[in-house]
Structures are given as structure tokens and as C-alpha cells.
Amino acid sequence: MSVDPDFSSRSEPIGLRQHDTSYLRSVPLPARIRGRLWLSAMPGSRARLQVFLEEACRADVGLVVCLAEASETQAMAPEYAATLQSGTLPFPVLQFPVRDLGVPADATAFTALTHDIAGALREGERAVLHCRAGVGRTGMAAQAVLFALGMSPAGAQRHICNAGSRCETPAQAQFIERIFSQARN
Q: Where would I find the Tyrosine specific protein phosphatases domain in this sequence (predicted)?
């Protein structure tokens, strides 16, 4: 596999490997980007919430983006849901709920979100994207973030797949293709 020359190889995992209990999966970003991006399953869903918090603190995470619906978070990770509600996490959490296996209801707001994340990464922010399993909705958003950072659609898809995420449904793949197409026009 060839590597894009303007992309760094900063893709080492933080903590344990994903097949163990690690939450954070690193995504290589363009070398000119000062921040870091990780993909994750929902904190508190695979292991204790404390495991995620320890990894996130070691990685100096400054922003978490939650793509899961509140009812899904409550069902899958009640401790995480409670900390979201109480605002006691050590970093801000942006919530942009998308139905499981679905696509964002508002493409314009989704595009604005992914551009905001890309801007934060340019400024040196260290961010985590997650949904429930950290695959479909996370992959869709991460591809859009990489595209906003200047990567080609094919390159964004490849890097996100290598990090363990992807669009899970034809609707998600079509949605992200529309985002790419609209940006080209």
C-alpha cells in the first residue's frame, strides 16, 4: 500500500490494542495538521468508563464528538450517559446524534460540524469521534473530517478503513458521496 506523502505516520494506538479493550484508534493526519484524531467505541460500552478516561487523559484529548442518540447512550453506557448529563467529563463533548445505521438528518449541519472539527485539528486540538461501536457513523464523520482537511475521498476512505471504521450501510456511503460531490461543485 502506498502512503500519501503529506500524511504522517502518527497512527500508533494509545493504550491496549482495539481487540483487547483499547478505546482510541489513531487516524493519520496530514503532516501540516498539528492536532490528533482518534476513533472510538462509545465510552463505557466495552470496558469501564474509567478505561476510556485514562486513555483520553494520557492522549491529552481536548474534544469528544458523540454521534449516538441519547437513548442509545443510556442503554449501552449508562455511566457515560450520566456523566454527559452532569457535565463532569474532563473535556467538552459535542453531541450530534445520528440514528444507528442511519445518516444525519441535516447534511448542512453535519458538514459544518466536520469542518469545525477539521478547523480544531488544524489549531492543534486532539479529538475523539465515537458512536456506539465506533464504525459506521464514526467512519462517515471521520471521512468527512479528512476530506475537510484536504484529503481525496478515496484517501479519506482508505485511512478511515485502516483505522477500523467505515460506512456500514449503502445509505451512509451514498450520504458521504453526496457530501464529497457537493464540496467539489
A: 108-139
